[in-house]
């Protein structure tokens, strides 16, 4: 009996090995090929499809796509950074932080034979890559949006191509257009949306004159067409009577990726000014001689008292980043905020408010609500950066709404002039505190606590004072008070 059992076991092991090899061979044959801007990518471990999602090795992101990646063995967290965006993923966890905002993955990152696998489409699209699946040859084509040619927007016909999208890998739309209405008195087009729509792109075209606004990663709501038929939006006689807006058109311009396009037919010599908050985009139509600058008008606002909110990031249970010597971001943020407050209190035309004055915790949404309820004129959020193991250094400033970009540029200029670190630029991002505020708002990352030189600067009280003075100079320049 033992011999017979041993024989069965031997046969079972042989069959198991046979089918294992056959399965592996099949996986190798069926593994999709990867291309970046038409160039084949060399991948030792091929992409695999798990629960209808394409997963690729993390190594591809590092070596082939040249993203910055840091890995924590303790927490099993992967941080991916490139350009304006960063992601924080955790092995076997569907929750992911996209620029510090939580989203949910269809399939989490996972370890397969000691290889870290991450969801291709989700990660690629966060960094501006277009993903197309070619069914015929089982290939995945990644395309940098910067490398794509600018199409003929008005004459383009959207016809089928040789590429077809697999049902399991659809573009994830993050925003939904709810309605478009026009205020004829104020000459403002109001675009209501839910979710996240950023960065919005817009441009003027002529022959005929029109403004084109593209909303990325967006879809039309089911009732959006009905909203377009409402008289307040597109009453032809009322629109023509005001002399600036002639017509409004919109459509789901693209499905891959999802883009909603709005076209405003305008009279000659009309310009526009676009602003945005967490729920609405406004396009104000202007005569050519009207100011289209987002900076406060000097003559009209000479005697105004400006409300400025200084937001000290993190606090209490939320320490933020931890420096290489243990210096906490929350402590730096508060110390700098108090110095900025002290300086602004000396300004005759500024009232200063802080979201926290001690080591307390304030929810992100509450910080934005605090500024909105005050009807503040400016919102400045103070932070310090961190990217362990990367050697990253320098100052960067983030904005969400186009109306905030000028403020970011001015403050960035002043900080870089005194801090003596690399200028990492002014960038667009969807951080909650600058996305949900209704006034011009920026988030400042003074330097990197993960960098020895940067951290030493941030710990230095005299240097903090210089940074505070630079921020105040930027605020005053923006408000025409300098």
UniProtKB/TrEMBL annotation:
For this UniProt entry, which residues form the secretion signal?
1-27
| Residue ranges constituting the MurNAc-LAA domain according to the UniProt record | 368-476
Question: What Gene Ontology molecular function terms does this protein carry?
Answer: N-acetylmuramoyl-L-alanine amidase activity
For this protein, the record's Pfam families field holds: Amidase_3 (PF01520), AMIN (PF11741), Cu_amine_oxidN1 (PF07833)
Q: So which domain of life are we looking at?
A: Bacteria
Which InterPro entries does the record match to this protein? AMIN_dom, Cu_amine_oxidase-like_N, Mao_N_sf, MurNAc-LAA_cat, N-acetylmuramoyl_amidase_3
The molecule here is called MurNAc-LAA domain-containing protein
Organism field:
Paenibacillus lautus
Q: Highest lineage ranks of the organism?
A: Bacteria, Bacillati, Bacillota, Bacilli, Bacillales
